[in-house]
Design brief:
alpha/beta, 2 domains, Rossmann fold, single chain, about 350 residues, six-stranded parallel beta sheet, elongated, about 15% strand, 13 helices, six-stranded mixed beta sheet
Length: about 350
């Protein structure tokens, strides 16, 4: 598998605008996913000796935490966890998955970069008698899925931010949203976040809605907005990575870290963002995931499928919770990064 340096989210978005179209077209003739139990590589969880974890967004801080717990859970149940190296490229992801399928790895947990494109690989895996678990969304061809209460996380953040705006700005000020329109997770989080905020704080002026999931893109997008709106009060991010970039842009513009009229919030529960919340900065909230729960699901969901559970029975929607300064859960999630 390719070992070239990981690509940034911006380069990925540029790539999918061109060559990525070819990958999408390849999905149009996906093979049948029906497989008799007698043809399955794993007749039960006892037959699952290896699980492939395919996570292309390694630039997201949450990746290291999820992987740590997935490895620990794999060791507990006596399974070898292997990882692909997709380098943030859909073509490399597809190629790596083709290799994993050819190797007859009993179970695959994959976070698709382009969901429609990977229907081909998912169907091929099922047709070969393998288990396919979709991470971060759902596919037509799958054994089960792992999702994270996407819209709920956005709603929790949007509602908290709106309540803060009313209490601290009189409901009048300027806000910018850092969103993601490329995958199911991003679209649902964006909807929950923006709908909840704008409904509860209708007099706030939205001065930006920009695509960003990583710190570098968040930094550049908010810098550009600050050039036109130096009095920007709030930044809400689809990820803590993007929101962290927004925080940095405001700080570099001279905003005091404890400014009473500024609110930044994100989603995922990244360590750097959580530490800013605990410190009492204007990074005030995160709709945070429990890394242990997600890491365990990477192993437990495919094992449940191997033991005969259906898609509906094996799939899991990992709960999400809003954390703020002083919350016990904030300290608990930070400790999971240790």
């Amino acid at each position: 598998m390719s070992q070239t340096p990981d690509l940034s989210r911006r380069r990925f978005l540029g790539w999918t605008g061109g060559a990525g179209a070819a990958v999408l077209l390849a999905a149009c003739s996906a093979p049948s996913s029906s497989t008799d139990k007698k043809d399955k590589v794993a007749k039960s969880s006892k037959d699952v000796d290896k699980i492939a974890f395919d996570y292309p967004f390694t630039f997201l801080p949450v990746y290291a935490g999820v992987t740590k717990f997935a490895k620990a859970r794999a060791k507990e149940v006596g399974v070898d966890l292997t990882q692909t190296s997709d380098n943030g490229r859909p073509d490399v992801q597809a190629s790596n998955l083709d290799t994993v399928i050819a190797q007859k790895v009993p179970a695959i947990v994959s976070f698709p970069m382009v969901f429609e494109a990977l229907e081909t690989q998912a169907a091929a895996a099922l047709g070969a008698g393998l288990i396919w678990v979709t991470y971060g969304g759902t596919l037509k061809n799958q054994s089960a899925s792992i999702t994270f209460s996407f819209e709920e996380g956005g709603r929790l953040l949007g509602e908290d931010a709106a309540a803060w705006a009313k209490a601290n700005l009189g409901g009048k000020g300027k806000i910018a949203f850092l969103v993601d329109d490329t995958i199911q997770l991003g679209r649902e989080r964006t909807k929950g976040m923006m709908d909840a905020f704008t409904a509860a704080a209708p007099d706030m002026e939205v001065v930006g809605r920009e695509q960003a999931i990583d710190p570098d893109t968040g930094l550049s997008k908010i810098k550009a907005i600050l050039a036109k709106h130096p009095d920007l009060n709030m930044v809400l991010g689809i990820t803590d990575g993007a929101a962290f970039g927004g925080y940095k842009a405001l700080a570099e513009a001279g905003r005091a870290e404890d400014d009473a009229k500024t609110y930044v919030g994100g989603q995922d529960g990244d360590l750097g963002s959580l530490e800013l919340i605990r410190k009492g900065t204007f990074y005030r909230a995160s709709a945070a995931l429990q890394l242990r729960d997600i890491g365990n699901a990477v192993i437990d969901v495919p094992m449940a499928v191997a033991d005969g559970k259906s898609d509906a029975e094996a799939s899991t929607d990992v709960p999400i919770a809003l954390v703020k300064q002083g919350d016990d859960l904030l300290d608990e999630i930070i400790s999971q990064y240790s």
